[in-house]
Amino acid sequence: MTCGFSIGFRAESLYKHSQSTPPNTPSSSTMSKPVAFITGSSNGGIGAALCRSFITKGYIVYATARSVEAMSELTHENVRKLAVDVTDDLSVANGIKQVYAETEGIDILISNAGYSHVGPLLDIPFEEGLKVVQTNFFGFVRLVKNVVPLMAKRKQGTVVAIGSILGEMATPFQGFYNASKAALHSYTETLRMECQPLKVNVILVAPGSIKSNISVKSAYTVPEDSFYKSFEKQIKHVMYQSQTKGYGVMDTDEFASIVVRKVTSSKPPQYLSLGGFATKMWILKWLPRTAALAIIWSLAQQEPKPGTYGPM
Predict the structure, then answer these.
(1) Which InterPro entries match (predicted)?
(2) Sign of the C-alpha dihedral, residues 179, 181, 192, 204?
């Protein structure tokens, strides 16, 4: 999840091997339309909202998620659904090949698929941590490897990485997510510089708290032998608080509309951060690092109000 001081288990989970809806032969009228390729597009999430917003801009949208069925609410004629697993080399390659076989090429690539596992670092199984990094970081790397060379040949295209403000300032009980987003941010900034001579735009989006259905699907229990058993309420609070008005959560469609407007403008920004807690995080970044982290840890230890550490 891309949120200010919270986490969800899945911003989007993805499925192995490329798989598509029954093929539709693109008409000459759709071939001339710009093409957006968006990962993590399942119902109720940021990706689906981005798909809808791109459609209003006249784009052909290739929406990807764990399965085609997970994108059932995307019914517009300009949406083409693919099942692409960003943790699988062949699945990503096949999905990209299909798009280039049906269109003149991808104009905008949005890497939005993500995964997280809440909890103290000492309690998170290595396999879960690896899954977080494989999805959030290496998933983007796979997309870049398959798409950017093709954009470079056309000397046009825009790559958008959906990071998180948690990639800029760590918060407790979501360490692997923080680390994966920090790696994503650094990689994206390097890619931006290296893509300048290739005429390919690279944009980093660092959302704060954005409304989604993630917290509803989440569940967490501190292991009985955990050193952090006394923090169970605080850990659950981290998961759910981002979806509250008090936390400044931004409407998903509003977020998507702003992002799409910015990335499709004649002068797209290199960096964009918006959503709940984004401004506060920006202020914290200007403080001495140790002071900022001390404030964050102090907030994490506070006893949450009743009803704010479970499903809303």
Answers:
(1) NAD(P)-bd_dom_sf, Sc_DH/Rdtase_CS, SDR_fam
(2) negative
Confidence of residue 148 (pLDDT cuts 50, 70, 90): very high
Amino acid identity, residue 41?
A: S
* Residues with catalytic roles: 177, 181
Q: 71-101, pLDDT tens digit by residue? A: 999 999 999 999 999 999 999 999 999 999 9
SS3 content of the chain, % helix, strand, coil (to 5): 45, 15, 40
pLDDT in tens, 156-203: 999 999 999 999 999 999 999 999 999 999 999 999 999 999 999 999
Using CB atoms within 10 A of its CB, is residue 32 exposed (0-12), middle (13-18) or buried (19+)?
A: exposed
Cα 49 from Cα 71, distance rounded (Å): 11
In which residue are the tokens 């093709």 written? Answer: 150
Provide the sign of the torsion angle of the four alpha carbons 241, 176, 185, 299, taken in this order. positive
Look up tokens 């000492």; give the residue.
122
Q: What are phi and psi of 15, to 5 degrees?
A: -115, 150
DSSP for residue 281? H
pLDDT value of position 116: 85
Q: Which position has the token pair 């825009």?
A: 158
